[in-house]
Design brief:
The structure holds 3 protein chains of 3 kinds.
Chain A: E1 5-16, E2 19-30, E3 33-38, H1 45-52, E4 60-65, E5 68-70, H2 75-80, E6 83-86, H3 98-103, H4 114-128, H5 143-156, E7 161-165, H6 173-188, E8 192-197, H7 200-206, E9 209-214, E10 217-223, H8 229-237, E11 255-265, E12 271-281, E13 285-289, H9 296-304, E14 311-317, E15 324-326, H10 332-337, E16 342-345, H11 349-353, H12 360-368, H13 380-392, H14 409-422, E17 427-431, H15 439-454, E18 458-462, H16 466-472, E19 475-480, E20 483-489, H17 495-503
Helix pairs in contact in A: 8-17, 12-13, 12-14, 13-14, 14-15
Chain B: H1 2-6, E1 13-17, H2 23-49, H3 53-65, H4 74-98, H5 106-124, H6 130-159, H7 163-186, H8 209-228, H9 230-240, H10 242-247, H11 252-279, H12 290-300, H13 305-328, H14 335-355, E2 356-360, H15 364-368
Antiparallel strand pairs in B: 1-2
Chain C: H1 2-28, H2 36-57, H3 67-95, H4 100-125, E1 132-134, H5 136-142, H6 153-160, H7 164-182, H8 184-194, H9 196-201, H10 206-232, E2 236-238, H11 245-255, H12 260-279, H13 285-291, H14 294-309
Antiparallel strand pairs in C: 1-2
The chains are: A alpha/beta, B mainly alpha, C mainly alpha.
Chain lengths: 511, 369, 329
């Protein structure tokens, strides 16, 4: 059974608009093995797997199942090929029971019989060692239980190619171990298992082979037994490339913002920030590195007053008054009323930072419209600002009255960063400010951040490209699983060092 | 299994969101939809009545505007009045809808506004001076509408109660409230004899002029409010993205309450115009379902008061015109509702072509095989 | 008198029950169809037209009429009208992804217009003195009651004296309840309304389910209009007589917490509330009008309480009112 190709991808390419998500990817997964797909954020792992499971359709290239060419145009087609994908965001109906979710959409022979289905589900649970109450409603379940439902769902459909998208991201170490045991049992049963991940130790402990993607491109496949953490890191992050980003020495660094032991949990009650402490100096760029979803967004939102934290303190050292104010759990308006000039370039540019359907001038006003006592808007200043930004940052647009959603990604970002900088902040936070931008726009953004740094602004830069982080930032804070796993000097740290810190999650609890 | 697999094809038709459409192109599509609708009405009526196709439009036009070229303007005034009332209700729901708060309760809010006006006119009529009474009537109806409008918003803000269903229920409560009041006052005759105390003054001898002027002023005011005021700007931000609103520190709940108060208040004005400015009486049918038509006016007018004015004009034209066509041919006057329904459905449907484009996928698989 | 009251309440409740069950099926597919009031008018007038044509074909003589056809023809023409309207709604909202509220409201305008148009035209055609059209002959076939109902006293009057559509309504409600909770297709339909992306990923044809839910729901709601004309109103159509029953049916959906079986009880309660004023002798006419507010107040209270308690099973279908577009990223 082993070493028989279950699925083979040949020259798969997929683009979204101008963004190339996958480029000429070739990949083979065998029966009776666990294949890891390793890559950083945005390396195209999920897009690739979505093409196998029928969510997207490849622009170019071919997919072979058991050696025969296959067209997978919908999830239903994927089922017919016995492919089952467990998405990172569960696709479950909350008000349904586990059983109802599992049999959803099936065209089974015979009468609709929940009892019989429950029996079959129990049998599957027993075979592979799952624990699940088939009658339990999804919305009362913990995340790990929901994942179990997802896995059983595809097994129930007789899937023998299973794709798991970052299955351990939501699990505790104990739950992870349980899951791995189950996966190994399935492999021994002759199933082909593909697991998307970026956690090296998991790759090494679980998989038989590892395929590495980087920036949408296929780098190579290695056998786990014959590789090492260092080699994989190198394949994943690539050789260090010199970008020639300027970096000046911080002048007169003073503490501007302090974060003390901040804890924060999400709606499900899981801890997303775990005792985070650090400080940012005026006149420096602090980089934040980490796998996506390690708590970066929550961290910035806690500082900006958009997310409540459970405990801890966010202290702002006001350069004008010399006061130290605690910003924890204040609203954005209260923070501004304290005289804190905090600018924030959020990750979700059109969903949070800007209003896509409004024109550039009106988007400029988002920050400033409250000014003045008049009940009416003052559009002159925002319009001037819009024109200034268009000129200074070379925004390509027909004019100030163009809705921002019509602009290209880079220009959208210039508008957003331009606006945030125009507020002459003392703290500037930017989340993935160059994501999806071309080289020139990226450099514009780097230069803007550097300018701010030289003006004595405390800059926080959340990035995903380690080369950029290492060349731009003075210090780099690495976050993993909501914890600070290390703070390194941007001038001396190596890429591997940061890469390893990023993948070092819950190191202490791992026994 | 292999047989089953052969059935799979690449999807041929592919629908993608588009955002490259220019303003004038979008309005071109909408105008085309209106044109198709108007043609359809012409065809249907000439089929039903055997009337000459072009004659239908002649009847519609002269039926709406009367013998306007001979200096007879009474029908024109009636047309303007009807348009004004519908527009006023549309203006009321526009801020709520712009905020993505589905206020389907304009009917009820206008009714309670009218009821408050009627109540003041009857209760205080003759007891206090007209100079005092008219402002009281106006204030009472605005207040009543605002209260009726803010109630669903309170529940929405506090418990996220579905506002569409809530406002719908409130409509019928308002209707019954009026039925109750009519019985009390009318004493079983089910009719309130028109009361002139507290009624809005008539300018010259043009019965509808003041109503039209008030709504015209409201139209400009609402345009200015939505386009140039800080509150109008907040409404737009909340409607576009509550996330962005939070990001810049807007209190979304407060905006909900404030805007629904406004929406209800303007509905109250509409009710007041109908009662104190037109009928001087009230019954359960005073608003006559226009609260719902107004939603379509606001939606089709893209919340731009001036475009909404055109839409109201169009709808009233179709309604009156089609009724006239029906009348002159012994058809039932409900032909008007059908006509309005057709045009609105076409207009709503044509938005698809504004927002999406349909593309055929290259059939490259066949070439390779 | 109590017997008469209950019997009357049941009669009043039937159009609401049809409307509510139809709307529940539609809402379970994720579509808030505010066109239901119009569709019920459409269903009613469809039946009236069918009956009118058949009565005329039989020379307006009751003896010539075949009881089977006398029922079947109005039934079919009623369903054709309401299903066509359902088709318009689903084409607009599913395929063209138009705003559901606006489409629904436009359809209600259209449907009420349609009903009154044909109703008014037929009235003119027969040159009736009254502003109505009477199809009493057809109505008699619809209202045929069980022969032994009269012999059974109060039991007969309450439970056995109704028209067959009334029993059908209850039967349909029960079947719909079973369909939603006990069948595979029902499960799929509910999934579409709750979370179309999940349903899509599970291989369910979301579009087909949305169309089916809306069109079948419309057909059922349309029967409510038919029952109203043929049984409640003794075959007499007069314009606007159907009133706001369609909206009350939508209210009933909320009251019943989207459960057809609850809708049976709810419709009876609504029927009783609408009717109670006539039987409470102490009330003046004006208070009776206030009394008619009760169904809506009760519905509002239910709506508020469910939103406060946030019990997941009692919420509207999660994606109610939202269009679904698979490629939205």
């Amino acid at each position: 059974m082993a070493n028989q190709a279950a699925i083979e991808l040949k020259n798969i390419t997929k683009t979204f608009g101008s963004v190339v998500a996958n480029k000429n990817v070739n990949l083979v997964a065998n029966r009776g093995e666990i294949l890891s797909i390793l890559g950083e954020n945005g390396s195209g792992k999920t897009t690739l797997m979505n093409m196998i499971s029928g969510i997207y359709f490849p622009d170019e290239g071919e997919i072979f199942i058991d050696g025969e060419p296959a067209v997978i145009a919908s999830p239903k087609d994927a089922f017919d090929y016995k492919i089952g994908m467990i998405h990172q965001h569960f696709k479950l109906v909350d008000v349904f029971s586990a059983t109802e979710n599992i049999i959803l959409g099936l065209e089974e022979q015979g009468r609709y019989n929940l009892k019989a289905a429950e029996g079959r589900i129990s049998a599957i649970c027993e075979q592979y060692g799952f624990e699940l109450d088939p009658k339990k409603k999804i919305y009362t379940m913990a995340v790990s239980e929901k994942q179990t439902v997802e896995i059983i769902k595809v097994l129930y459909r007789g899937a023998d190619i299973l794709i798991l998208d970052e299955p351990t991201a939501v699990l505790t170490p104990q739950e992870t171990q349980k899951l791995f045991a189950v996966l190994r049992r399935m492999r021994d049963d002759g199933k082909c298992i593909i697991i998307i991940t970026h956690k090296l130790h998991e790759v090494l402990s679980l998989s038989d082979r590892v395929a590495v993607l980087r920036k949408g491109e296929y780098i190579g496949t290695v056998e786990t037994a014959k590789t090492s953490e260092t080699e994989l890191t190198e394949m994943m992050v690539g050789k260090k490339i010199s970008l020639n980003i300027e970096r000046s020495e911080p002048k007169d660094p003073q503490v501007r913002l302090e974060v003390h032991h901040v804890n924060c949990s999400n709606r499900e009650g899981a801890l997303v920030l775990d005792d985070v402490s650090f400080h940012v100096n005026a006149g420096e760029i602090l980089g934040i590195a980490g796998i996506a979803g390690s708590g970066q967004r929550e961290l910035l939102e806690v500082i900006a007053g958009l997310q409540k934290s459970d405990s801890g303190a966010v202290l702002y050292h006001n350069p004008k008054t010399g006061n130290v104010d605690n910003l924890q759990n204040k609203t954005p308006l209260q923070i501004r009323e304290l005289g804190v000039r905090l600018s924030f370039v959020p990750e979700d540019r059109l969903g949070m930072g800007l209003v896509g359907n409004m024109d550039i001038t009106d988007n400029m006003m988002l920050r400033s419209y409250r000014r003045g006592k008049s009940a009416f808007l003052e559009r002159k200043a925002p319009k001037d600002l819009a024109e200034k930004i268009i000129e200074d940052l070379e925004v390509v647009t027909p004019g100030t009255t163009t809705p921002v959603r019509r602009l290209s990604g880079g220009n959208v970002q210039k508008v957003l960063v331009g606006r945030e900088i125009a507020a002459s902040p003392t703290v500037l936070m930017a989340a993935y400010p160059v994501r999806g931008l071309d080289i020139n726009s990226s450099y514009t953004i780097y230069n803007l951040l550097n300018e701010q740094k030289e003006k004595g602004v405390a800059v926080v830069f959340v990035g995903e490209d380690l080369d950029v982080l290492l060349e731009l930032c003075d210090r780099i804070l690495v976050i993993g699983g909501g914890k600070v796993t290390g703070i390194v000097d941007g001038r001396t740290a190596t890429k591997e060092q940061v890469g390893l810190l990023m993948t070092k999650t819950e190191g202490g609890k791992q026994e | 299994m292999s047989q089953k697999i052969k059935k799979h094809h690449e999807p041929l038709i592919h629908i993608v969101k588009r955002d490259d459409l220019l303003g004038w192109q979008a309005w071109g599509i909408r105008l085309a939809a209106i044109a198709v609708g108007v043609l359809l009405i012409g065809v249907i009526s000439s089929l039903l009545t055997g009337e000459n196709f072009f004659k239908v439009y002649d009847i519609m036009f002269s039926g709406v505007f009367g013998r306007i070229f001979e200096g007879k303007t009474s029908m024109l005034w009636k047309y303007l009045q009807d348009t004004a009332i519908l527009l006023c209700l549309g203006l009321a729901v526009a801020p709520a809808f712009k905020m993505k708060f589905w206020n389907c309760g304009a009917e009820g809010q206008a009714l309670v506004g009218g009821l408050a006006a009627m109540f003041c006119m009857i209760t205080f009529g003759g007891k206090i001076s007209e100079f005092l009474l008219v402002p009281i009537v106006i204030a009472a109806s605005i207040l009543a509408g605002a209260i009726w409008g803010v109630i669903p918003a309170i529940f929405k803000a506090k418990w996220n109660t579905n506002e569409t269903l809530f406002t719908l229920m409130m409509n019928y409560m308002a209707t019954q409230l009026i039925a109750y009041y009519v019985y009390i006052v009318g004493g079983g005759s089910n009719v309130i004899t028109p009361v002139s105390t507290g009624a809005l003054p008539v300018i010259g001898n043009l019965q509808y002029l003041l109503n039209v002027l008030i709504v015209a002023a409201l139209t400009v005011a609402m345009y200015v409010f939505l386009r140039y005021s800080k509150q109008g700007y907040e409404i737009a931000v909340v409607g576009e993205s509550q996330n962005t609103a939070r990001y810049i520190g807007i209190n979304v709940k407060k905006v909900f309450l404030r805007t629904m108060m406004l929406s209800g208040a303007v509905c109250g004005v509409a009710g007041m115009l109908l009662v104190a400015g037109t009928d001087h009486s009230i019954n359960t049918n005073t608003v006559g379902g226009q609260g719902f038509t107004a939603i379509m006016v606001a939606w089709l007018g893209k919340f731009n008061p001036f475009v909404m004015a055109l839409m109201s004009g169009l709808i009233i034209f179709l309604r009156t015109g089609a009724a006239k066509v029906a009348d002159s041919n012994f058809l039932n006057s409900s032909f008007a509702d059908i006509s309005v329904g057709i045009v609105i459905l076409l207009l709503v449907g044509c938005e698809f072509f504004v927002q999406y484009s349909v593309r055929l996928r290259r059939a490259k698989k066949e070439v390779e095989a | 008198m109590i017997v008469e009251f209950i019997s009357r309440a049941i009669l009043l409740s039937i159009p609401l029950l049809f409307g509510a069950v139809g709307e529940i099926l539609t809402e379970k597919s994720g579509h808030l169809n505010l066109g239901i009031p119009g569709i019920m008018y459409g269903g009613a007038i469809g039946g009236v037209i069918g009956a009118f044509l058949y009565e005329n074909a039989c020379g307006n003589v009751a003896e010539n009429m075949n009881p089977f056809l006398a029922i079947l023809i109005p039934l079919l023409s009623s369903m054709i009208f309401s299903m066509l309207m359902g088709l318009i709604y689903s084409f607009m909202t599913v395929t063209l992804r138009a705003n559901q509220n606006v489409t629904g409201l436009a359809l209600t305008t259209f449907g009420i217009g349609l009903g009154n148009f044909f109703g008014g035209s037929l009235t003119k055609l027969v040159q009736s003195d009254l502003p109505s059209i009477a199809l009493t002959k057809t109505s008699r076939f619809f209202k045929a009651e069980l022969p032994f109902a009269k012999d059974l006293g109060w039991f007969g009057e309450i439970f056995l004296s109704h028209d067959f559509l009334a029993y059908s309504a209850i039967l349909i409600a029960v079947l719909a309840s079973i369909f939603l909770t006990k069948t595979r297709v029902g499960l799929n339909l509910r999934a579409v309304g709750e979370n179309p992306a999940t349903a899509d990923a599970a291989g369910i044809n979301v579009t087909a389910y949305k169309y089916a839910g809306t069109i079948i729901g419309s057909a059922i709601a349309g029967l409510g209009g038919l029952q109203y004309v043929m049984a409640y109103a003794d075959g007499v159509w007069s314009n606007n007589a159907f009133g706001d029953r369609g909206w009350m049916a939508i209210a009933l959906v909320i009251f019943a917490l989207w459960k057809p079986s609850m809708a049976i009880l709810g419709s009876f309660l609504f029927g009783a509330l609408c009717n109670a004023n006539n039987y409470l002798k102490g009330l003046g006419t004006e208070t009776q009008e206030l009394f008619k507010m009760l169904p809506y107040i009760v519905t509002l209270i239910v709506l508020i309480i469910t939103s406060m308690r946030k019990k997941r099973e009692h919420q509207p279908p999660e994606s109610l009112g939202l269009p679904y577009f698979r490629e939205e990223r």
